[in-house]
Amino acid sequence: MTKRAPGRTFLMVVGIFLIIGGVSAMVTSAMNFVMIGQEEFALILEQTLQQVGISKTTFQISIVLTAIQSVINVVTGIIGVANSKKIEKASLCYICGIVLIVFALICNAYSAFSGAFSIFSVIFSLILPLLYFWGALKNRQALQEEQGTVVR
C-alpha cells in the first residue's frame, strides 16, 4: 500500500526556499562578521548605524541571530525536502515547523525590543515557517488516519 503525503509539496517547496535563503543568510552573516572586524570599515559602519539609530551591539546581536536562524533554516529545509514523501517522519517535520515559528518570533521580539519593529517584517518572517508547519501537519494527519488514530 502506497502512503500518500498530502503535505509533500509544501515541505518540498518551502524546504528548498529555506535552504536557499539559509545559505544566502550564512554568507551575508559571514561577510558582516568580517566587515565588523575591519578597521577601514569601522567608521563607515558606525556612521551608518547612527543614521539608522542602531547601536553596534544591537547590530552584532542581529548578525548572530541571523547566523543561528540561517543554520536552523538550512537544517529544517533539508529535513523537509528529504522527508516530504515520508509520512512516518511527519512528527520530525512538525517539530521542525514549531522550531522555525518559535525562532522567527524570538527574532521579531528582539527586533521589537531593539527598536526595529515592523508588522510587515513579522508577517513576512512567518510565511515560510507557517507553510512548512502546515505541510508537516497535513502529513501528520495522514499518518494518524493511516494508523487509525483519527476518527472522521
UniProtKB/TrEMBL annotation:
Superkingdom as given in the UniProt entry: Bacteria
Ranges annotated as spanning the membrane: 12-37, 57-80, 92-111, 117-137
Annotated keywords: Membrane, Transmembrane, Transmembrane helix
Protein name: DUF4064 domain-containing protein
Source organism (scientific name): Blautia hansenii (Ruminococcus hansenii)
